[in-house]
């Protein structure tokens, strides 16, 4: 990549140290493929919970509800720390050394993410109340609040509230962009490493057991079939909306470059399929960049935009979370407060930037916004985790494919505004697929 004064920054410097989407590996160059990944484990946990819930004796079931109570308390304690530990350094890194191209790319990526969330919100509000009519289950019961009460309860009060964590993160993150890099920023980067390690070593391994206990309780409470029916309907709706989003994104990209948008979208298929298999935007960066270059995007733009957008552009993930959030609110009878939901989508676009690169990391980062702005309890958040991971790879594939569209738009915007080699070269083959 040819460097340009002030306007184009080194992609390695612009890219934060953590990928945006849940990923089974830590870095694109060193994949670690699990023989039995998180999604299969969660699916097995759900199936076992439904089957065993029909015959499991209450004393044994209370063991799992006790675990769920302790896990929920620990999760509630950890969520504000997750927000501070992830959002603060993410904002600081986006601001450090930002030139015009970085600012424009970040703005377009956030706009794309927010618009996808608002589209999902509008479609969900229009269709889901009718599609899910008759599927209402009332307030989801936590197993520990039902007939299968836990053997004991453990309270772990958080250090501060979720909204306090959000405001504190914004203030500190923006403040760190205004001062020289020093010990404080390094401390927050170390805090992020600790938080990510806790998620990797404790939260993620225990998620299948937590979801098992959640669905076991739903089975014993007689709510499971309504929940499963809701999931299937919403998954179909999400997949249809992701197709519409990609067509719209490449309609704009095609207009920006004067190319056939369907052919451009077809050339991104290797990146889409790679993300579908890895569930990782970071692991897909080399393939996404090469597919993007085949669409006529200069190497300098692609090599900058693709690594950056792998971190900050989460249109597919935001679409999924928004749709499932509305679905859960519908079936549980929660009020659909439209202004609060709009605020939730706009805030979600900011918080998702800081999602750690571990399986389930994005929904963990979003849990604080779900609880603070929409009033989700532990049972609803547990269902959100299961729903998100169930179609995780499709959201990631939508994210990375949309990154190529943003690179095309940035190619058009950069003409005559930045220096350097912006010549589009021919790339006939895509390697690494």
TrEMBL record:
Residues 1-28 are annotated as: Disordered. It comes from the Bacteria. GO terms for biological process: serine transport. Keywords: Membrane, Transmembrane, Transmembrane helix, Transport. It is a multi-pass membrane protein. Residues 10-28 have a biased composition (Low complexity). Its main location: membrane. It is found in: Membrane. SUPFAM superfamilies: Proton glutamate symport protein. GO terms for molecular function: neutral L-amino acid:sodium symporter activity. The chain crosses the membrane at residues 38-57, 69-89, 101-128, 159-179, 191-212, 224-248, 269-289, 363-391. One of its GO terms (cellular component) is plasma membrane. PANTHER family: PROTON/GLUTAMATE-ASPARTATE SYMPORTER, SERINE_THREONINE TRANSPORTER SSTT. This is Dicarboxylate/amino acid:cation symporter.
